[in-house]
Amino acid sequence: MSPFSEYKLYPPRLHRHSVRGRIPRHESRVARAVTVMLTVAVLLACRAANTLAQEISSSAVGDATLQPDPGYVAITPRERIDWIVIGTVGPKSLGIGVFVSTWETAWNTPEEWGRSWSGFGKRYIAREVDVALSNSLEAGVGALWGEEPRYIPSRRHGIWPRARYAMKTVLLTQRRDGHLAPAWGRYVGNTVNNVIENAWLPPSITTPGATAWRCAQGFLGRLSGNLFDEFWPDVRRLVRNRGKPAAAEEF
């Protein structure tokens, strides 16, 4: 898993709440109603995303950048579990958690947690829970029809064809036979998890707008992760070969 695929920052506080984050009873009822409507909106968004992905997949019949990799090997149950675990508590994920939590503490977002070690700890734990939920939902739901949660490099040539493949596979992913199809598990993992987390996150980041922003960040994180996984091996190879006799390097 790319170190950027689960990079998520809480949005700035959008509304002022009463002291210590308490919300009047009538506002609480409104918040619950909004949560229900948001859940429905998320489901509709998933359906719309699926329709878009199907259109992309259908139009890609003659697109070499989206043809299944003939050498693709389907993910095993053990590898699926490893993907969840490493993506949640692996060194890269834990390191990014420290960076993100430090950044949010410095900017005091969400402000209910304050600029303190306690606030840092709450942000770090919240991020770990978010990653665990997102990964588990994506890999678990996707396992029902053999969806690939990992990014599979394109093995294409040229920067644009590879970048285009990385962008399109935000919504598409391999199935057991290697063909590309809508990534249903990913839709669930990057939307439903945020609705669930609203049950315990501070009020300032559980508004409809803030929740939608967190969902969007999940897909943006996937995009950055795909691009990183696609091009980083080439960048690392070029750096290692720096100073050595010139060799033909092709992106």
Task: Describe the structure in your own words.
This protein has one domain (23-238). Helices cover 58% and strands 2% of the residues. It is built from eight helices and two strands; from the N terminus they run αααααββααα. A two-stranded antiparallel ribbon has the order 1-2. Strand 1 (172-174) and strand 2 form a beta hairpin. The protein starts with 24 loop residues before the first helix and ends in an 11-residue tail after the last helix. The model is unreliable at 14-23 (pLDDT under 50).
Gist of the model:
It is built from eight helices and two strands; from the N terminus they run αααααββααα.
Specify the number of helices: 8
What number of structural domains do the residues give? 1
Q: What is the 3D shape?
A: globular
Work out the radius of gyration.
20 Å
Order of helices and strands: HHHHHEEHHH
* pLDDT < 50 runs, ≥5 residues: 14-23
